[in-house]
Write a structure and sequence with these properties.
The complex is a heterodimer of chains A (112) and B (116). By secondary structure, chain A is an all-beta fold. Chain A has no helices and twelve strands. In chain A, a hairpin with a 4-residue loop joins β8 and β9. Chain A is globular and about 40 Å long. Classes of the chains: A mainly beta (112), B mainly beta (116). Chains A and B meet through β6, β10 and β11 of A and β5 and β9 of B.
Chain lengths: 112, 116
């Protein structure tokens, strides 16, 4: 079965600093997709970034970037220049068939 | 981006009654929608995959007779919690994907169900 592991229940970062959220996954598929979703206090899930496994280049979206290590099955999210609005629960997810398998989530707190 | 609308956002019902939650894709057609349940500060647990024009596919351990799913059209899926009990109180979220594998999933705003 597909599993996604987020080992950091909570993380804190000072405003304007950089933080990295870790994620590891397990899959037997050769071609797959990985995602980071954000769930702010409103609880509306929002896509942060997406990575296609067959692409070696790490995905970036403005202040958000990933470090995708396919051999190690690692998919960490780096948030640069953290802002107060980045405070949320972050979920790493892997696609399994047509379903998304989510990790347990990491609560990110941003200090002003 | 695409919009998925979920209604109601909050509902309180009496134990033993049924409650229906609607999930609509407003600007795209979704042949497949997904229903999740989320407990406080926990991850999303997939309950079932809703397929337009056919029966839903339920995850292991999810009672299909309690959680009735109907995907009546390409833009509407409903989840009915039948004979609700306090332990069914939770946050329910739907999502829909516009496209095939790897496509972004768009989520509804969620429904907070409280059974009293």
């Amino acid at each position: 079965a597909q599993t996604v592991t987020q080992s950091q229940p909570e993380m804190s970062v000072q405003e304007a600093e950089t933080v990295t959220l870790s994620c590891t996954y397990d899959t037997s598929e050769s071609d797959y997709y990985l995602f980071w979703y954000k769930q702010p206090p409103s609880r509306q899930m929002i896509l942060v970034i997406r990575q296609e496994a067959y692409k070696q280049q790490n995905a970036t979206e403005n202040r958000f970037s990933v470090n995708f290590q396919k051999a190690a099955k690692s998919f960490s999210l780096k948030i640069s220049d953290s802002q107060l609005g980045d405070a949320a629960m972050y979920f790493c997810a892997s696609e399994y068939g047509n379903k998304l398998v989510f990790g347990a989530g990491t609560i990110l707190r941003v200090k002003s | 981006g695409a919009v998925v609308s979920q209604h109601p956002s909050r509902v309180i019902c009496k134990s033993g009654t049924s409650v229906k939650i609607e999930c609509r894709s407003l600007d795209f057609q979704a042949t497949t929608m997904f229903w999740y349940r989320q407990f406080p500060k926990q991850s999303l647990m997939l309950m079932a995959t809703s397929n337009e024009g056919s029966k839903a596919t339920y995850e292991q351990g999810v009672e299909k007779d309690k959680f009735l799913i109907n995907h009546a059209s390409l833009t509407l899926s409903t989840l009915t919690v039948t004979s609700a009990h306090p332990e069914d109180s939770s946050f329910y979220i739907c999502s829909a994907r516009r496209g095939d594998r790897g496509a972004e999933a768009f989520f509804g705003q969620g429904t907070r169900l409280t059974v009293v």
